[in-house]
Amino acid sequence: MHLTRSQRQIPPPEFADESRILAEGQKDGERNLPEMGSYTPAPFEQALISNGEQAVQQIYKAASAKISRLRPVVEAFQRKLDELERRIRPINEGYRTRSAELGRDAAILFPPVFHWALIGFLAVGEFPLNTVVFRLFGEAEYLTYVMASTLAIIIPLIGVFIGVHLRHAIPKRVGNVLIGVLTPLVVGATLYAVSLLRNTYISSQFSGTGFVSPEGNQMAYALFALNLLVFFGATVASYFAHDPDERLDGFHHSLRSLDRKRNPVRNKLYEVGTQLNGEIEQAKSQIDQIRALTNQRVQLYRQTNIRHRKLLPPPSFRKNAEFPPLQWWPNVSLNNNHHEGH
Q1: What is the mean pLDDT of the segment spanning 110-119?
Q2: pTM, whole model, 2 decimals?
């Protein structure tokens, strides 16, 4: 019997060289060792197994070190995921119950991601507008920025809260009519204000002075209209980014918020868990390969031994080679990393 090329890819120690196995098998066979009634493996067979197990222990210890570093990380992410799942469960149940009562799912016309992007854009646009106004006070530059940034944040946020309140406090049809009536009015007022500013600028250029000197009332109206547009834009965006039913809307936004927190944890758990399982499977595969090679060596020894024996082979040759048991590492279950919330 000859060893295959794939089995020779593991460099065998000199002790387990094929020629050595053949020689020892022939020598023990000629001496009828082990004895015909022996249930105990021959000393050389035991040495073959012990030699193979040395390589097994090296792999086992190296894998155990890697696994012991990865497992606490996996367990930490698993605890975070379990806590988030525990918090999501009652909210998800409340959402389903309320959805069944209303006979519909949450109706969000304006996606939240675009909603908050618009709010941020309005705040950025509001800042330079207010900076121009507060510079008229003649205060220090940093105070101008503080006052301008305060209004740039407060005005859109108030619009957000007002939009949510209107969405929940008044009937859907009334709210839609109100938005439909106010939108052209606010936009028209803003366009008129921009026209005033444009005409004032053109007049200043033709006057030769280059200075903009509009009447106080016109400037006040223009600034008011522009700020009103920012406020109204935030209100409308918030109005359409929420469901008319307050309870369903609360459940919906809570689920989305927790789901955003859960997804990175779940992805990280899947990544580290897959790495841990990969280390376990790789170690098991390498150990199985080494033990298969050891078993092939034992079989080669036994067959050579039998060919040179004058007596019947012992009962120990009828049993497979026995290896010491190993305490295998448990794999990480990744099934719960694909649960879908609402």
Answers
A1: 86
A2: 0.67
